[in-house]
Amino acid sequence: MPHGSDDARKKFILTTTGNFYGIQPSSSLTDSQELNNFLDDGNEFVLSVSRSNNELHLSNKIEASGDSGEKVLVFFKLHPTVITEDNFHQSLLVSSMLESPINTLYQAVKQVFAPVLLKDERWRSAFDPKLADLLSELELGLGSVVRQFGAQSSSKKGRKEEDVLGILTPSDEFQYWADLSESAEKNSVRERAKHFTDQFEPIQKEFCGLDGLSMSDVVDLVEQSKEALDDVWRQTDYEPYPETRMVRLMDVVGGALGRYVQKKLSALKIFQEPFVSVRESLRTAVSICEQWVIACEHLTGQVWKRHVPHPWKGNKHCPQSLHCLAKRLNEVVTLRMVHEKLLCLLPGGKQQALTSDRVFEPFSGLNPLQYNPYTEPLWKAAVAQFERLMAPSEQEVAGRLKSYIADVKDNPQQLLQAFQKHKELIRRPTISKELQSEREMLLARILDYNKGLKTDFESRCHGGPGDKFGPLIGRNLPEVVNKIVWVRQLFHKVEDSVRIAEALLSDLSGFKGFLHFCDDLLEVLRVYEQEQFEDWSRDILSGLADPKSGISNRVMDLDHVDGKLKIQYSDRLVSLLREVRQLSALGFPIPAKIQQAANTADKFYRQAIVLKQVAHFYNTIDQQMIASQRPMMLSLALAFEQVIKSKESGGKLQITWDNPKDLEVYIAKLQSAAEKLSTENRKLRKWHTDFIDKVVVTLMNVDLLRHQQRWKDGLQELRTGFATLEAQKCLWVPHHFQQGRGPL
C-alpha cells in the first residue's frame, strides 16, 4: 500500500482539510495515528479535524466546538470498512460543523434533508408518513433550540438575547419570542416575550406568506414593518428590545425582501422585453429595497438616537446586502431608461443602431439580479461595453439637447425642468462634456435661486405666521409648528437643489463654492428650527409652573366673587396636545415634563369635557329655573353645591389632574348631583307648562253656565298637582338667591 504523500486516501483527506481551513496541512499529519486508524481500521468510523493556533488537530472523536466558535470538519464512513483507493469515493462522507452540532444538524435537516425527503415526489412516496412527521418535528424542535440559544451549545447555562446566529429569517425572530413566551421560567420574561409577539403579529403572517404577495402589497409591508419595529423599540412597559437583535432583525428582513424581489423579477427578461413592460416592476422592486434601507437608517440614525427612554447607541445601520441589490437594480433601470430616451431623441433612420439585441448583447450571459463581489467585475465589464456601443448615438443626442436647452435658457423654471427631464442622459460622460456651458449656466441659476431663498428667510424669520413679513402661514398649525414647517420647506428646497447639482454639476469649477453656500444656509435654517423648539420648550416649562398660564394641573376653581365655577382645562391645554403630537411627528425630543403634562392632558380630555358640561350647568342653572320654583329645588341645589365644595381646603378646590382615581370619583358624584337637579328642574318646568295649559287653554275656554262639571274636573286636576308639589315641602329660598349672586 502506498505510504505518506503517495497515499491517495490521505491526499484526499488532507487536501480537503487544507482547502476547508485555508491553510497548508503539516506533512507530519500524513503519519498521524488517528488518520491511520480511520483509514485502516474497519471499526473506526470517525475522523474529526479542528484548528487551534493555526495548526490542524486530528481525532477519532467528534470534538464539537464550544464558546470559541471554532469549526470542525468531520469524515465518517457509510459502513464498517477499511478505506482503500478503490472505495473511498463510495464509502466516505464529509460534513462541516460550524458553531455547534445543534445548529449544524438543524441547517442540514432544514436546508437539505427535509426538502428532499418531504417535497421531492420520488423520495416522498417511498418515505413512511410517520417518519415524515418525526422529521418535521425534529426540524421544529431543533429550530426552537437554535433560536433560543443562538448557535451556542445547549449545555450553556441560561440564554443570552444577544445570541442571534440562529435567526436567519424574520419568522425565526418572531418564533423566538413566541417560544420564549411559553417556555421562560420567569413570569416577567414570558409577559415581555408575549408583548413582543403581539407587536410583531401584524407582519408575522405577511412574512410567512411573503412569496404569495403582490409587489404593491410588499411596498405596504415595508411601511408596516417599519412601524412594528418602531413600536417594539419605543415600548416602555417592559425591558427594552436588545440592539443586537434589532440589527439582526433589520438584516434578515432586508434579506427576505431582497430574495422576494429577486424571485419576482426572475420571471422577467429584463434586457429583452420592451422597457414599458418591465419598467413598473423594476421601479417597484427598487422602491421596496430603498424604502427598507431608508427606514433602517432613519430609525437608527435619527428617531431612536433621540428616544431618551431607550436611545440607539450604535452607528446608523444599513442592511448592506439589500442596499447593494438596490444599487444594482437602479443601474439596470438607468441603462434601460438611457436607451429608451436616446431612441426618442434620435431620428428614425439612426435608431437601427440602438436595437435592444445589439446594445444589450454584453449582458446576455449575466443575471443582473445576482449581486455579489464575484459577479461585480463581470457586470462592470458588460456596462463598459454597453457604453462603448452607445457613445456614437450619445454624441448626436448631445447636439439636440443643446438646442433644446438654448430655447428655454431665459426661463429658470423651464431650464431646471429640462435638466430634470433628461438627467439620465445628461449624466452620461459624453453628453455631460458636450453640455459643459449649459451646465455652468444651470449652476449659476440654482445659486441665484438659493440666494433668493436666503433673502426671503432673513426678511421673514423675525415675524409671526400670517404677518406681512412673517413666515408663510399653514392651515390649522400652531405657531411653533408653523414656523418649523415653513423653515423645513425652505430646507428641503435647498436640499433638492444640492441633490440636482451633485447629480449633474459636481465636476464644475463653481460647484464647491455653491456647495459651501448651501451648507452655510442649511446650517442657518437648522439653527432657526432648533431655536424655535427650544423657545417653545422654555415657555411651556415656565407655564407648567404658573397656575395662571392655563396649563397648570388644577382641575377647577370656584370664584367666590361671582360664584362661577371655572374648569382649569383651557384651550391652551388642547393646543399643547396638538403641539406635542406634531412636534413629536417632526422628530423633536419632547422634554419629559412637557410630555408628562401632555399625556395627562390627553388622558383627562374626556373628563375635562364632562366637567365643562357640569360647570356650564352649574353656571347657568339659575337661568334654566323658573323663579317661583327655585325654593322647591332647595335640597337638590344644596346637595349639588355641597359636592362642588366638598374638595375645598382653605377656600380653594384641591382636586388636580394628577389624581385620576379621586377625579373619577369626584366627577361621578358631580354628574349624579347635577343629573338629579336637572331632572327635578325639567319635571317642575313640565308641571308649570301643564298648569298654564290647563288654566289658559282648558279652563279659560269652559262655559261655566253650560259645563260646570268640566270646570270642576279641570280645577280638581290643578289641585291634585299642587298637592303633589306641596307634599315635597320645598319652601325655603337659598341665601345666594336672596343676595342676588351665584348660579343658585
From TrEMBL:
GO function terms (MF aspect): dynein intermediate chain binding; dynein light intermediate chain binding
Q: Which residues form the Dynein heavy chain tail domain?
A: 187-649
- Protein's name in the database: Dynein heavy chain tail domain-containing protein
Instruction: Tell me any Pfam family this protein matches.
Output: DHC_N1
Offer a single GO CC term for the protein. axonemal dynein complex
InterPro entries referenced in this protein's UniProt entry, alphabetically: DHC, Dynein_heavy_tail
One GO biological process term is: microtubule-based movement
Q: Which domain of life is it from?
A: Eukaryota
